[in-house]
Amino acid sequence: MHISSADELRPLHEAKARGVDITGETCPHYLLFDEHAYTDHRSIIRVNPPVREKRHQVGLWEGLRDGTIDMIATDHAPHIPAEKLRNDIWTVDCGFPGVETQMPLMLTQVRAGRLSLSDYVRLTSTKPAKAFGLYPAKGALLPGSDADITLVDLNREDTIAAAQFQSRSKITPFEGMKVTGVPMHTLVRGRFVMKDRQIVGETRGWGRSVRRIQRMPPPQPKNSDQTLVAVTRGVGAAAAGRKETGEG
Fold this sequence. Notes:
Mean pLDDT: 91
Number of helices: 8
Low-confidence stretches: none
Distance between the termini: 47 Å
CATH topology of the domain at 6-145 and 153-182: TIM Barrel
CATH architecture of the domain at 6-145 and 153-182: Alpha-Beta Barrel
Structural class: alpha+beta
Strand order of the largest sheet: 3-4-5-6
Radius of gyration: 23 Å
Oligomer: single chain
Number of strands: 6
CATH superfamily of the domain at 6-145 and 153-182: Metal-dependent hydrolases
Strand content: 5-15%
């Protein structure tokens, strides 16, 4: 689920405390935009769930720092401008491209001190790989791991411009936003697919569908005797016992 509000964090935290096998993720637009986005970006900002008020943004950052939120995703939705630019926001397609903006946006937040670089790697690589049973082939720089590597320049400044996207979608609410920290080179299984910020080589067909490589550990619920079902079942059993003995 895309966590967009601080109100979602309490039940998520409590579920984790009970041992429920659950993860939560949020996206850059929930971390960086608030209610003013509807004035600034109008129909372009429409996304599901919606961008919310400032107080929720503050709560989401805290959820990232304390571990309640496990991942930062992109919610990539490559709509073309015609699908996003309408006077009636309720007829606009939801979402916008996120794959090419997530890294520079979040590296900028690393530079601002909101996250450490290790936090960013954990939230966008290690945690997702573990959640999907792909670790350590994915999400790690270890002997035997797939050489999926992104090399970044943490000091390079840039401006987000949809016209430069590789995506079919040339529209974004992040248009014109200044960023510091960008990906320079990308390797997939040891082969350069982007070099000096340009797609290189014969990349078509190099992508590979990956499947879970390890059996996921069985969930280990805690405090299951305190769930609503367990409590009400206990109350019902006690009531039946009193009735059978003639008590009450």
